[in-house]
Every structure is written in C-alpha cells, then in structure tokens.
Amino acid sequence: xxxxxxxxxxxxxxxxxxxxxxxxxxxxxxxxxxxxxxxxxxxxxxxxxxxxxxxxxxxxxxxxxxxxxxxxxxxxxxxxxxxxxxxxxxxxxxxxxxxxxxxxxxxxxxxxxxxxxxxxxxxxxxxxxxxxxxxxxxxxxxxxxxxxxxxxxxxxxxxxxxxxxxxxxxxxxxxxxxxxxxxxxxxxxxxxxxxxxxxxxxxxxxxxxxxxxxxxxxxxxxxxxxxxxxxxxxxxxxxxxxxxxxxxxxxxxxxxxxxxxxxxxxxxxxxxxxxxxxxxxxxxxxxxxxxxxxxxxxxxxxxxxxxxxxxxxxxxxxxxxxxxxxxxxxxxxxxxxxxxxxxxxxxx
Length: 348
Description:
There is one protein chain. By secondary structure, this protein is mainly beta. It has helices spanning 10-14, 18-23, 54-57, 248-251, and strands at 6-9, 27-30, 37-39, 45-48, 65-73, 76-84, 99-105, 113-115, 129-134, 140-146, 152-158, 169-178, 185-195, 203-204, 208-214, 222-225, 228-229, 240-242, 254-256, 262-265, 276-284, 290-300, 308-314, 329-334. It is elongated. Keywords: Calcium, Cell adhesion, Glycoprotein, Membrane, Repeat, Signal, Transmembrane, Transmembrane helix.
C-alpha cells in the first residue's frame, strides 16, 4: 500500500465523533523510532506516512505487525493498536550463485544424494518458496528436502551410473518456484564434473556435530573441530576442509581451518538475529573424493541488551491539589533479550 493509503477510522472503532476526537487532542505515537501512521483529528482517519515494505520492516519473521498508541490528552487515555502487514508476492526465489559446481566420482553408487544450494524468497507463506524442478536428463532426479528450521532445499539423486570417459560433465538447470498467483521462479545452472575414481572416500567421525556457543564469544574462539579420516596414502589420503555452501551471513560469522578442521568464531554472534546456524563442512582428499558433515551451532543468549524506555507523554505541570493516582507520565519498556534476560522491573 502506498503512502497516504487508508488504514482505518479509529473514531468509528471507538464510537467517537470527529469533534470529540479533536476536543480530546488525540494523536498517534508509534512504538519504535519510525512513525508509520498519521491521524487526522478532524475525521479520525488513520493513514500511512510511507509505502510499506514487509521484508524491510520484518525481515526475519513470517508474521508482521506494526504497533502504535492512540493517546488522548483530555482526559488522559492510552489505547494500544496493532496493524498487521500482509505479504504480497513481490519477490522471486533467488539462488546465492547462478552456477553450482558439483564434483562427483564416476564410481558413485546408484541412489547417492548430493545437496544443492537452497534458493531464498523474501516473501512468506504461500508466496514463499514452494518447490524445485530439474531439467530433463538421463542421470539425475530431484528429491525435495526440508531443514529443521523449515527451509526447503533439494538433493540430486543419482539414477544412472556416471562414466567419465563417456561424459566428463553433465549440465542441468535447477528451477525454484513460489506459490504466488501467478507464481514467480528463479533458476541456477548445475554443472556436474565427473571425477576419476580413487580407492577410499574420507569419512567423518560424526555425521552431525551439535555444539553450543555464547553470543558474546570473541573472534577466534573454537566452536568445534570436525575430523575426517582417509586410509589412502600420499595426496589421496591428505584431507582438506572447506565450507562448500554457506549463507552469506554465516560465512561472516565462522571460519574453517582447511588443515585441521577447526571451526572458529569470525564475526559477532547475535542471539537476537539468529538463534542457530546450520553449516555443512566438506572433507576432500588429494584425489578429489569428498564427504560432508553437518554442523549445528546453537547460539546461547546472554544479557547484552539494556532495557529501552520510551516516554510517550509527560505532563508539563500538575495542580498541587491533584488527587492520588493522577497520571503524570506514560512510558513503555522493552528488552530485546529473551527469557529472564528480557524481563524488566521498573522503579523510581
């Protein structure tokens, strides 16, 4: 909805006439630094002060609500309001990279699965990412998957043996589609490079590493050490570690030592922005064989946010015969921390 669009008529909702609204000196106060709404005190109509963008206002939440306060000065009264911002299908699914390169051994067995980078759609609900499809080919099918946090991704499933001497590369097109009407879609090229065989594939000590780290952990702190063994000799048994696919946000937060598999904190973790991170580590030997493991990092909350006090109104003066419980000021308090760290007590 564009600027100046009608949100509602608060005078009608409250059963007040426009003259009563003006006489009581009604005004709107938004909760937060941005003022999203404007009140016409002569009609009671509530309008937008700017064009809304749900993805900017609520980037990490499927539900989106804007809170405001309707304040009356005479007599003093405060009414809380909530405006739900509903999503429209104005974004297409987008892959992090336009081309994905997979290196697959020619001796890979039928049914082997290979995870693909997930597309991202800023829209939510039915307007968000719904499914993936793969261009027709004779070697691979596509299996949809869903992560623990609800993200949808896909894996290539090998249906027919590869032969490097017959075909060195397989070129595919991966399409991500949302559920809007009409639907929007995005594509990425998938280039499968067929590798010559070597005897043994690196094997991780665990398929899934689950660790916890406090959000105030300093850069350089060890998160976990992933370890893979390869019984081959020489370069074919030497393992190097990499992040084959990681979101841009996680890439700025963690670093992986290619020699010893140590994952350390790189940037500033923030529990309020992301409570957990899903990483995939790859171990590759000198012959090009590789294996994957999953690393689930749970971020622990610490009390790193101070309570914020917003003063909505304060009386300039009060008569000396004002009775007890006369309202002098109105304020609200919020704390971005969770649990006990986010609970507040007020005192004078």
